Every structure is written in structure tokens, then in C-alpha cells.
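Appendix B. One record, verbatim.
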Amino acid sequence: MARVYVSSVIDAPAARVWERVRDFNGLPKWHPRIRDSRIEDAFPPDKVGCIRNFNLQNGDNIREQLLGLSDYDMFCTYAILESPMPITDYVATLRLTPVTEGDRTFIEWSAEFSCDPEAETELIAGIGGNVFQTGFDALKRQFGG
């Protein structure tokens, strides 16, 4: 099983960053690679089990299911149901932790998935850089960092 892990620090309070990222349907508001998103079957975007159906800027479509969401622990866990990437069994978690020194946010995004061993290195680099780190960089800009 392949594993991706990326972390960063955002110069904003964790509660403020969590307000931005907790909306499972809100990716287009903060991630520059996401064009649009909708929750299927009109479920609320914080209902565990809901499915977001979104399009990347390049037109690719991805469907993901919310597996867990905690406002107390500031994390969300989700699985990819459909994707153009050659992966299976993809489960990811986005987690925020308050950094008390300076009232900042430690943010981490991790995923595990199965894939062809020959594609693993490229997929790990692509997900880690193009998805996770790109999202963190956008959040830093949005919060003035």
C-alpha cells in the first residue's frame, strides 16, 4: 500500500483555518485545482456518508465519500470512489492541530492507496505536490502567509 504524507504550518488560528476547510463541498473556495463541486442527493456537506462530485480545472471528474468529520479534533477522512488516477482503496485524512506559540495551525494531509508498483512513485509525488501541497500553499496565501 502506498502512503503520502504532507504537512505545513499556516500563520492563522486553527479554528479559522478549520472554518475554511471543514465544508466537504467547499474545495473550490480554497483549492486552486478544483473548478466546481456538488454534494450528491442533496445531503448536507457535513453528513458522514455524503458524496462530493467535483471537477478539476482540467475537466477530470472525481467522486469522494466523507467517512469521518470531527469539529472537536478538526479532521475529515474521505475515500475516493471514482477518479482518473489508476488507484484503488484510497483513503485520506486532512487534520489540523493548533500551534499555541503564535496562534498558528499545523496542518497535515495523508493518504493510503493501492496502485501498480511501477506507478507508485509518480502517484505519491503527484498527490503530495499537486494536491496536498498546492492546497496548503493556497491556504497560506488566503490567510496572508
